[in-house]
Amino acid sequence: MKTLLLLLGGCAVATAGYGQNNRLTDHNTIGWLVYVGDHKLAPKWTLHTEYQARRVHGLRVPQNQLMRLGLGHLLTARVKVSGGYTYFQTFRYGAYPTVAGRASPEQRLYQDVTLSDPLGRLTLSHRLRLEQRWLGTRDDHGEGAVGKWTYQNRIRYQLAGAWALQGPTLDDGEWYLNAYDELFIGFGPNVQNNIFNQNRLSGGVGYQFTKDAKVELNYLHQISQHAGPDRNSGRPVFEDNQGFWLNVAYSLDFTRKAAP
Predict the structure, then answer these.
(1) Element (H or E) spanning 206, and its range?
(2) Is residue 105 a part of any domain in this protein?
(3) Is 219 a member of any domain?
(4) Is residue 258 included in any domain, yes or no?
(5) Which of 31, 76, 26 is CA-nearest to residue 52?
(6) Which residue in 79, 80, 31, 89 sits closest to 57, CA to CA?
(7) What are the backbone angles phi and psi of residue 16, rounded to the nearest 5°?
(8) What is the C-alpha to C-alpha distance for residues 247 and 169, in angstroms, rounded to an integer?
(9) Which residue(s) pair with 118 in the sheet?
């Protein structure tokens, strides 16, 4: 694991530095509205549901839309594996948009493993995710049906932490601090210069109503490299986006028996 992370970090640093003096930087103010639910189907099985509405410029302009459905399995008290399907759309936004007209679709399969480490007030989690991505493109004007699907691979590593503020452990009706950093690396065919895909850094405050219901409001900083150069200048484009991330987590337990 340590070797893998060193390789990922080295690729990110090397690729992010590529053409640094020549690149274009696109600054956007972002707001991400997220719902997540891990619904208990059996003692060790969960159904994952997720929706994200990502917007820019004071929530006035759409950036992305994400819908995710998956299954999770608890191997031990600390280790969880999961996998599923994601539908993703990118809209036209920013100074150097990657979409000419209608929203550009993307379909993904994903597999991940999450390791949780409770350390007193602090709970750390490590997540390693693999994604198989099919990126759809329309005609030169961005209109019409999708005419081509381009396949790419991506690996993601996320380190996240939560710190209980009102006691030695996080319990119902309590506040907590949370933070995470996630690195995205593309690999395999069709990636070209987009090896470093993006990095997200976030931190903020959360409130746990119950173990199945939480809300979090975070600062979010996203650095993202466009898959291709700017159409007019041929220079690489990096987005430097900052704003907020509002996450609502609510899970149902379908294993509970209804009262007689």
Answers:
(1) strand 196-210
(2) yes
(3) yes
(4) no
(5) 31
(6) 31
(7) -65, -30
(8) 21
(9) 123
User: Looking at the 3D structure of the chain, how many domains does it have?
Assistant: 1
pLDDT digits (tens, 9 = 90+) for 40-87: 999 999 999 999 999 999 999 999 999 999 999 999 999 999 999 999
Of the candidates 48, 139, 140, 142, the residue with the CA atom closest to the CA atom of residue 93: 142
Cβ distance 128 to 156 under 8 Å?
A: yes
The one-letter amino acid at 17: G
Q: For residues 225 and 16, is the Cβ–Cβ distance under 8 A?
A: yes
Q: Across-strand partners of 162?
A: 123, 178
Say which DSSP state 248 is in.
Answer: E
- Asked if residue 155 is part of any domain, the answer here is yes
| HEC letters along 9-71 | HHHHHHHHCCCCCCCEEEEEEEEEEEEEEEEEEECCEEEEEEEEEEEECCCCEEEEEEEEEEE
- At 88 the pLDDT is 98
* CATH number of residue 212's parent domain: 2.40.160.40
Tell me the C-alpha distance between 179 and 202, whole Å: 5
CA nearest to 62, candidates 53, 51, 71, 50: 53
Residue 15 has pLDDT above 80, yes or no: no
Give the amino acid at 6: L
The DSSP secondary structure of 118-185, one letter per residue, reads EETTEEEEEEEEEEEEEEEE--TTS-SS--EEEEEEEEEEEEEEEEESSSSS--TTEEEEEEEEEEEE
